[in-house]
Design a protein that fits this description.
This protein is an alpha+beta fold. It contains 5 helices and 10 strands.
C-alpha cells in the first residue's frame, strides 16, 4: 500500500513549531529534545513525558513533533540489530516492530511503534503517529496503554499527570488510547 503525501501537514507542523518557540521551555522537555537531536540511539521511553501525555508543548518540543512527523511520512524504515532506523535522522531502540495501518472508517493512516515498557506507573504498548484526511486534515500521535482508561487515568493522576488536553478512548482490546491532535 502506498502512503499518501502529507505536504500540508509539513507546512502546518512547521507553523506549530514556530508557535511553540514563543512559549516557555521546561528542563525535562529539553532533556528529551537533546536525546532526539543526538546522533546516538534514542530509547523509545524518551518519547513519553508528562507533556506528551497531556498534549502540552513548549519551545523545546519542536524536535519531538518533528520526530512524529518523520515517523509518519518516512517510508525508509530499516531494522538493524535491536534498533530501527527512520530515514537518515533517527535511530530508536526498545521497539518490537514498526508497521503502518489504514482505518477506512476514520480515513486515518498511522505508523505504529509496538513496544512494552513501564513509565509513570502505566504500561506503554504502542506509540503511533497518525493523519486523518477528509474535509480537514488532522495530524497527531497516540499512546496505547495496557488496561482500562479509568484505571490508567487514576494511576497517571497519582503521578501528577493531568490529561486535560488529551482525548482518552478505550480500544477494541480493552486498553487505553491517549490521543493528541497537533494539527486539525
Amino acid at each position: 500500500m502506498t502512503l499518501p503525501r502529507f505536504d500540508s501537514v509539513k507546512k502546518t507542523v512547521s507553523g506549530i513549531v514556530l508557535l511553540l518557540l514563543t512559549t516557555f521551555a521546561s528542563t525535562q522537555a529539553e532533556i528529551y529534545d537533546n536525546q532526539l537531536n543526538s546522533s546516538e540511539v534514542i530509547d523509545v521511553q524518551y518519547l513519553i513525558s508528562e507533556s506528551t501525555f497531556n498534549c502540552s508543548f513548549n519551545a523545546s518540543s519542536g524536535e519531538l513533533i518533528s520526530f512524529y512527523t518523520n515517523l509518519l511520512e518516512n517510508s525508509s524504515i530499516k531494522q538493524r540489530n535491536s534498533q530501527f532506523i527512520i530515514g537518515n535522522r533517527y535511530k530508536v531502540k526498545n521497539v518490537k516492530s514498526i508497521n503502518s495501518t489504514f482505518k477506512k472508517t476514520k480515513n486515518e493512516i498511522s505508523k505504529n511503534m509496538d513496544t512494552d515498557f513501564n513509565k509513570f506507573g502505566v504500561r506503554v504498548l504502542r506509540i503511533s503517529s497518525f493523519s486523518q484526511n477528509g474535509n480537514s486534515e488532522n495530524f497527531g500521535y497516540y499512546i496505547v496503554l495496557k488496561g482500562k482508561p479509568s484505571i490508567n487515568k487514576s494511576i497517571l493522576q497519582k503521578h501528577n499527570i493531568e490529561l486535560t488536553y488529551s482525548t482518552i478512548e478505550e480500544t477494541i482490546g480493552g486498553n487505553t488510547r491517549v490521543r493528541c491532535i497537533l494539527v486539525g
